[in-house]
Write a structure and sequence with these properties.
The complex is a heterodimer of chains A (301) and B (278). By secondary structure, chain A is mostly helical. Chain A contains 14 helices and no strands. The radius of gyration of chain A is 26 Å and the shape is flat. Chain B has 278 residues and is an all-alpha fold. Classes of the chains: A mainly alpha (301), B mainly alpha (278).
Chain lengths: 301, 278
């Protein structure tokens, strides 16, 4: 009796004790109800709202403002995506989000690598105290800091600028912590060999430590990309002009002009697809790294 | 090498804590050049007005329900994922996916679903002869709605962390329990769950801290904070909503920070005690 052809199993299979295999005859129903049903339900609960978002973004206003909802759009109506870009400067939001995400991630990851390397491989006083001081900030939510940071950055002229959006988030405890934990596991002998060869810290970092730590660096990078792309409260506060807004803030602007009119939902869903889809694609391709990074560190980015 | 990072952390993570303490003693309109010192006036106002029961109550309800339900559903989904079946890798990724999506985007998707006029939920309710409740106008329903969506978005985190916990359980202990005749339910309650207590504790702390920091969904789904003004949202509304009350907002931020600090210290002491006595 094999999993691929359960229907051709001999009749005697029914009275044999159920085997260990989940698809053996005695276990088949149990596997389907107890095993696959919960999995299917959980997957559908996640999938259906997102599918509804995509389907609705291709519906005409008439198909949305109706008492007789149909699941599939009648035609492939792409006007919502055009309307999104004419109602608000969507292309500008997209560009701003991309710049903020790329610049923020590059700087944050570089700073995290430097700090973690120094904490593990360089001798300097108060190292443990400094490490603890960095760790503590994992517990300080950025939300608590927004008012003082707003007053500081706005005072520096950072309002409605991209650098003003990026700057306060650049110091990184999460990436530093994750990379430090990884660097601690590296065999010291490799670095000692490099040291004997006369390599300074700079060369030891880029030619020895970084190359063998690529998976950890990739994890930190991906988590940072996702966090920068989704970041909301700070860009919301530091920008009030559309030219400087990122996508999540721009969506709020779109909601203010299209929200709750009923007919605007198609346009809003089109805008939402533009925010959610890039992250969903990256996640689908690299979920192993992202899940690992987000669950082994802490809750904050 | 570490210096740029340390300067940034000191400036944008540590300095604000002290700045908040200072601002919280001021009666200060955001944007105004002048401020008057009021000592503990902002704190007195918070704790003697309706704000304290309303905001602290909302924060407590939001935190208890999001944390409690996420953890119970999380371990059930983890059990479902912890089977030797095809497709569990895909299901694990699917369940985790909402956790990485933009809170603003997720909020909008669910606002459209909950929309009493044109939402798919109201359509389903009409199908069974019911009228859609006023999710956005009734404060209690608004809070319920935000709690549901928050759980939808963050549940995958609990599920995946519990799954990792289940997979690291010593297999000899589980087998020994099975040989002794313990059924699957008994094995879960008497063997797996106690062994998972470090995971449960880790999740309790992390989900509690992130629930106390929840902002994106509340801002997008209930911009006026109707029924959903938690500490963090009230602090935002007071400074950046209609009121521009920077001092009062800072006082609420300080209260939130003290709560987070107490939770963290409590966590550390709890872990130390466990290490010492077990």
């Amino acid at each position: 009796m094999t999993a691929t052809e359960p229907t051709t199993a001999p009749v005697t299979g029914a009275i044999e004790p159920p085997g260990d295999h989940p698809f053996s005859k005695g276990n088949l129903i149990k596997t389907l109800v107890g095993g696959y049903l919960p999995l299917l339900l959980a997957t559908l609960v996640v999938f259906l709202p997102l599918a509804w978002m995509v389907l609705s973004s291709f519906k005409t206003p008439g198909e949305i403002v109706t008492a007789n909802i149909k699941v599939l759009p009648e035609s492939f109506y792409t006007q919502n995506y055009v309307d999104v870009t004419t109602t608000v400067p969507m292309a500008r939001f997209f560009l701003n989000s991309t710049i903020v995400t790329v610049a923020g991630t590059l700087i944050k990851v570089t700073l995290a690598i430097f700090t973690a390397y120094a904490l593990v491989f360089v001798r300097f006083p108060f190292k443990n105290a400094i490490f603890i001081a960095i760790l503590v900030t994992l517990m300080v939510p950025p939300q608590v800091s927004i008012l003082p940071n707003y007053i500081l950055v706005a005072g520096m002229g950072g309002k409605n600028t991209l650098w003003g959006i990026v700057l306060p988030g650049l110091g990184t405890a999460f990436g530093t912590f994750l990379l430090r934990q990884h660097f601690m596991t590296l065999p010291r002998s490799i670095l000692e060999a490099a040291e004997i060869d006369g390599a300074g810290h700079w060369r030891r970092l880029w030619q020895v430590v970084a190359p063998i730590s690529l998976p950890s660096i990739a994890t930190v990078t991906l988590v940072t990309i996702v966090n920068e792309w989704n970041d909301y409260i700070w860009p919301l506060i530091i920008t009030d002009r559309p030219e400087a807004m990122t996508l999540p803030v721009g969506l709020t602007l779109l909601q203010n002009s299209e929200g709750n009119t009923g007919a605007g939902w198609g346009i809003l869903m089109a805008g939402t697809v533009l925010v959610i889809l890039p992250v969903l694609v990256i996640f689908a391709m690299l979920q192993r790294y992202i899940v690992a990074g987000l669950t082994q560190g802490s809750v904050t980015g | 090498m570490a210096l740029p990072n340390l300067i940034l952390i000191a400036t944008f993570a540590y300095r604000p804590l002290f700045a908040n303490l200072q601002y919280s003693t001021l009666n200060w309109t955001l944007g105004s050049e002048t401020a008057t010192a009021v000592g503990f006036g902002n704190y007195v106002e918070f704790f003697t007005s309706d704000d304290a029961p309303r905001v602290l109550g909302t924060t407590a309800v939001f935190t208890v329900f999001t944390v409690g339900i996420s953890m119970v559903l999380g371990i059930l989904i983890a059990l479902a994922l912890n089977q030797k079946l095809r497709g569990t890798t895909f299901a694990r990724a699917a369940v985790f996916a909402p956790y990485v999506l933009s809170g603003v985007g997720v909020g909008l998707v669910w606002m459209f679903i909950f929309d009493p006029g044109y939402g798919v939920l109201s359509w389903i309710l009409r199908g069974v002869g019911m009228r859609s409740p006023e999710w956005f106008n009734d404060p209690q329903l608004a809070l319920t709605m935000v709690i549901i969506v928050y759980i939808w978005k963050n549940l995958g985190f609990c599920a995946v962390v519990y799954l990792a916990g289940l997979q690291s359980l010593p297999s000899d202990v589980m087998e020994a329990a099975a040989i002794d005749g313990a059924g699957p339910v008994r094995r879960f309650w008497s063997v797996a769950l106690p062994l998972l207590s470090p995971t449960t504790f880790f999740l309790l702390m992390t989900t509690m801290l992130s629930s106390l920091q929840a902002f994106d969904l509340i801002r997008i789904m209930t911009p006026l904070g109707q029924g959903t003004s938690t500490l963090i949202y009230e602090a935002y509304l007071q400074a950046f909503g209609a009121y521009n009350r920077a001092g009062y907002s800072a006082a609420i931020s300080v209260i939130l920070f003290v709560i987070l600090l107490l939770l963290t210290v409590g966590q550390i002491r709890f872990v130390e005690r466990k290490v010492t006595y077990s």
